[in-house]
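Batch manifest line 321
LIGAND: iron/sulfur cluster
JOB: complex structure
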Amino acid sequence: MKHTSQPKRQGLARAEDSPLAPCRVCPRRCGADRLSGETGFCGLSAGLHVAWAGLHFGEEPCFTGTGGVANFFFSSCSLACVYCQNHQISQGRAQDTLYTKERFAREALLLQARGACFTGLVSPSCQGPQIREALVFAKKSGLKTPVVYNTSAYDSLEQLRALDGLVDVWMPDLKYADEEMAARYSKAPGYVAAARDAVLEMRKLAGDIQIDPETGLAVRGVWARHLVLPGGVSGTWETLCFLALEAGTGIGLSLMSQYTPLHKAGEYPEIARRLLPEEYAEAVGMARSLGFKHLLVQDLEESPDNAVPDFTDTKQPFKRF
Ligand code: SF4
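JOB STATUS: finished
ARTIFACT:
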């Protein structure tokens, strides 16, 4: 009896202790036992999966500065957007590489030495515990650059709280205001409720965005994004009203025009096109009318084709930057 009951107790204790087993790392709460090799919707093991790491100059100026962002693009995603411009790594497994915390720290320190203004965590929502461990180790090893958490906002509150003190700026991209749209285009049940809770939690953890007046770089706080989708699919007015009224106009906001009908978007006629100038102008008017103190409006004329990365190029997926 003793012999058989001991492993069961150990298994239970381990499952209760780790958010990876049963997995509840993102709001899907698949319940996969990732510590025993099971995988859930994201397909990720319990290791740290990175698709590409390097200096990136395409983020907002208050993150890019003159040195760029040392971006770690993590493999997979908590969403499955039919139009994802990073689909090669978010839904395919291009360049998927298992990192140790030592390798993460080594690369982050190297990029810091090359002048990076920020360390960027891109698509981190399915790997919170592994990222936490790697960040703690990197900071102990000398990582000083501030950290920006760049996410679709489909994040669990537990994981956000676990990263409190390690992340300086939270950057959620709030994608929809309608749960049916989130289910149709991103296969994300309950996205709107979960993402709004996540944004409010980020605001609670870090407050309004603070910008250093001398360097122009973000220091701490929340900087939200909203990618405008064709045909009103992203619910821009409702989304921006939520941000202004509930998160407050002291957070930063980027309004983004770069939508391109990539990946499977052609199967959805209503989003199989770029934004029309008049629909983007309407979105810009909405954002301006709400009084955000730090508002960045992406130019519709910027060429989205050049902004689309190709992650099969392991050296530099970003042709434009
Ligand atoms: S992180 Fe992956 S396995 Fe865990 S709940 Fe989310 S999708 Fe499922």
